[in-house]
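Course exercise 7: structure representation. Students receive a sequence record and must write out the corresponding structure in token form. The form below is the worked example handed out in class, using SurA N-terminal domain-containing protein (218 residues). Read each field label carefully; the graders check that inputs and outputs are placed in the correct fields and that the protein name is recorded exactly as given.

STUDENT ID: A-19
EXERCISE PROTEIN: SurA N-terminal domain-containing protein
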Amino acid sequence: MHRRRRTALSVSVALLAAAPLLTACGNEAHPGAAAVVGGQRIEVSALQAQVRDVRDAQRSAPESEQLIKNTGQLSQAKLNSMIFDRVLEKAADNAGVTISRKEIQTTRQQAAAQSGGEKQFAAMLLQQGALSADQIEAAIRREVLLTKLAVALGANTTTPQGQQTVLAELTKTSEQLGIDVNPRYGSWDNKQVRLGEAKTPWITQLTSETPEQQPAGT
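STUDENT ANSWER:
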């Protein structure tokens, strides 16, 4: 039995809807890297490619000028997501959580159907989440994996206590990874598991018809 529910945890907005106001440049400990997570680099070129994809999609949209205006901190927001994804993947791995290609495809199909079709779904995510077509799958993977991590932790994410349980696990993982961010993009907050402190309202939760929560690793 399916019911309408958010694919993203409510805690996900607090974790992902953040982009820093800091733009100061400092000495780079890792030249060419936007960040280093667990010893693995996130290259500036990779970050710029994600930003470029979104800007190209926005310029092709009817409301292009407004979309671009509303996403002035796009580089920081994209880096925030790139770092968070690595933290989440590590936390899920530690908890024995896996995700299948079928789960991602099913969630995407259900979300697209709810939105009136794939084209409408992509347009909505470009407008509300600053996601290009090529970035949709990664965003859906993030939300499904976050939901399954909560299940594995026994966290009821409809309650503040459950949300804090997930946040605590991600904080622990974030600290273990030793995240180092290029100062031009701001600084990483382990406690909030996000880049900087300023929230941007244009990053929103995805919604879709999804199955009831199931045991992690299924």
